[in-house]
Amino acid sequence: xxxxxxxxxxxxxxxxxxxxxxxxxxxxxxxxxxxxxxxxxxxxxxxxxxxxxxxxxxxxxxxxxxxxxxxxxxxxxxxxxxxxxxxxxxxxxxxxxxxxxxxxxxxxxxxxxxxxxxxxxxxxxxxxxxxxxxxxxxxxxxxxxxxxxxxxxxxxxxxxxxxxxxxxxxxxxxxxxxxxxxxxxxxxxxxxxxxxxxxxxxxxxxxxxxxxxxxxxxxxxxxxxxxxxxxxxxxxxxxxxxxxxxxxxxxxxxxxxxxxxxxxxxxxxxxxxxxxxxxxxxxxxxxxxxxxxxxxxxxxxxxxxxxxxxxxxxxxxxxxxxxxxxxxxxxxxxxxxxxxxxxxxxxxxxxxxxxxxxxxxxxxxxxxxxxxxxxxxxxxxxxxxxxxx
Length: 389
Prior knowledge:
It is a single chain. By secondary structure, the chain is mostly loops. Helices cover about 5% and strands about 0% of the residues. It has helices spanning about 50, 370-385. The longest helix has 13 residues, at about 370-385. The chain is globular.
């Protein structure tokens, strides 16, 4: 490609361009570079149409893995990651959406042994980090693939999925964070005695315990549904829910971060003028909302697929999934960060070979984005008997 060039380290470029670097051991879309700067190849005749005057347009990655690339100042939404792990980046001054993950910023901080919800990450892979015994919320992943990892019995947060439904997989005995979902429905399952991070659900549901005088951040759950409780005077961050559904509450005057949920479904609320962070969901499906111009962090979704949306120019945090964004494989029409969705449902991706280097997903033959098709598919899945691997 470059002619007789002194190559360093282990980078083999093909003809995809600067945003899709084929490596030798990892495979495409998983960029293993070390010194990507202008002096990487020595005195090399660079193609000005490809690199431009400032060097390659791709992001600098070290060994973190796909999902989050080591950025310098390329753009907001993904911060410079060192060795924290993908999914949450260490943000220095790149842009909004992710806070500096040391001990100071909102969102998710660098966790050591602080508590449940975010696990200690090593270097395993994107989307979900390997947890040791820190706490629920994220499951232990092996090396299956980005987005959602196939969990054995390691930990809570994501259960072994087969064909149960969107949003939450059927959990057998994995642990807290996601309870055994029998007939309850997607979003949150019935919790009995799983462990911390999910309260004993009597009539309310797991994920939020009945809070009386506990403190802010968790509201009193009466009959709204699991996942989000009725926030009266407790504190910000959780909105007052009526009966919309689990996962998202109806935000009236509470504050940004939670949008108004009407009847779209769990996991995503209709954001009108509530605030940034959640976009307007119409009928796309749970897990992804249609962002018009509400705020940054979520981009305008067409019908690509759940989990990640196609960002045009709405805001930072999600890259346009054609050839631009780091750490996301080349997608056709499904959407980055989620593999081919066939019968699993939105919110959980079907890992093709469950490997770190997975190929580009094809068009989904099952029109799950169609309202009628999704209803028929989910009805067919509910009639089947659950089978665990």
